[in-house]
Specification:
The chain has 454 residues and is mostly helical. A two-stranded antiparallel ribbon has the order 1-2. The relative contact order is 0.17.
Amino acid sequence: MLTNLNKDGLSLFCTRFIRAFSFGFLSVGLVLYLDALGFSQFDIGLLFTFTMIGDLIITFYLTTTADSFGRKNILIIGAALKLFAGLVYAFCDNFWVLAVAGTIGVISPTGGEIGPFLAVEQAALAEAFKNNDDIPKMVGWYNVIGYTAQALGAVASGGLISILISVGYADVSAYRFSLIGYSIFALLKGLFYMSLSHEIEPLHARDSNAPRNWFSRFGLHHPESKAIVFKLSGLFIIDSFAGGFVMQTLIVFWFHTRWGMTTVLLGTMMMGANILAGFSALLAAPLVKQIGAINTMVFTHLPSNVLLLMIPFMPTLWSAVFVLLLRFSISQMDVPARQSYVVVSVASDERSAANGITNIVRSLGVSLAPLCTGVLLDDSQSILFNFPFIVAGTLKIFYDLLLYYSFRSTSQSHAYATVSSEAKIYPPEEDIEGGLEPHLSPGPSKSDSSTSIN
């Protein structure tokens, strides 16, 4: 369990819960809501693409300026954009108005993380940890809370929609409540952000006289940081593009259309999936310590993608649900390893930017997929209806193999990292077994006491 978190840390874990709950709450009703409004699957795919591209641009700017403009300020702005998008989606049915609101605001077509929040929150939380070995544990618990909240949000939304329909609400009106709830949670989260102190900001400001190039202007100002972020980004975009074919909202639609699952069953299924994913994240920290972050990412992700390929070939509803849940029980173990690796590979005042850039690259990949899935899912009687799972599984396996072989050539441990605001670069040790691969200096801390996770 988490111990010794200060007020800011507790507030950020609360906002993580609220945000993830709201995304889960939205995931069950969003596609069904847009479908009930009369939009075709192609229209919905196009709308999601606009939304994801807009998120890419907005999040890029917000995360790469957070460490200089202020992490608290950026989080508050993000919450306001989320509230704006939720309200417009709830009370407007014009395609182009929705496209503009989704592009400017923050709304999750995937049912998962979107916006600047995760990047900035993790950068802020990392300030509390003197020992970098504690960061994977923190990220693990951060993800457990997120997945659990997302699961609860999905089942709450499914149950609410079912109740509303049973008492006489039209489908579209019942689905609209998922957007209204999404907006309320955005407002609540914004209130938590307003209570944060200056302690969440970077340890030291950047040198304003340092030479500026494209990367330094947008938050990365050390060559080693640029190299590792660029390399990881090139790999992550493959995985995220594949993930865009099997977003949770589209999984919900596929099971609803293929097997006729009710919203209650869909919410329960996604609750189980997210709870399994969340608690599997706790297993990532000891694996990272034993076999390294890259190996953890690959060896847990690869078998989950084989399971993903199997889902459309299952002969019954419950066999398909079983394989989906089995897949979720291991598919997200790579997430804490990936996020920890990024956080410890750059300086304190580069963390928001590094997190933001790698997350944005992932958002770019995801944003390209809905146009394809819209076509594939338009006809439930077509063989193409099963292709999202096949395409996603194949591309994700390719990503796993490419990630492994890209880092195997450098023995993983030969990645450089900066962890102090002075950006002192230390050479890698010759023999490092397991653990986070970069050779890390403990760096300065705001206080002599460190935060620990048990």
